[in-house]
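Session log. Operator J.P. requested a structure for one protein chain; no other inputs attached. Running the standard single-chain path with token output.
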Amino acid sequence: MDLDTHFARRAREIEPKPMDPNSLTEREYLRQFAARPGIFIGFTSVRGVTCFLDGYDYAARRSGGPGLDGFRDWLLANHLRRQSSFAWPGLIKQIALPEWDFVTDLSPEQEIRILEVLFELLDRFLAERETVD
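Structure written below.
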């Protein structure tokens, strides 16, 4: 199964909520993205999703929003519990595929695993941040 098919099936399980993107919280907007990333970026891949999220983070911060500020530190503190020189996309790969060597090409199943872990952890991070704010 390819990634777009996987996420299209997943999206059918989530009740669609057509809304003005400007009225959504950061968490709601990124949940919409997580449900069907291919609609936002044209195809679904780990690289495409992380590039989109990096761009989203940059744009949010330029506009005065928090973006993904603190996500990397949250991953280190709550899921790796050790230091790492990786940026958050590398940390997600370490968490999702602890045995992966970072050299071998990812299989579609590994990409699905990484994206599932990414979207789950990103949602948990944003949920925690909402309760603090």
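Operator note: The chain is about 65% helix and 0% strand.
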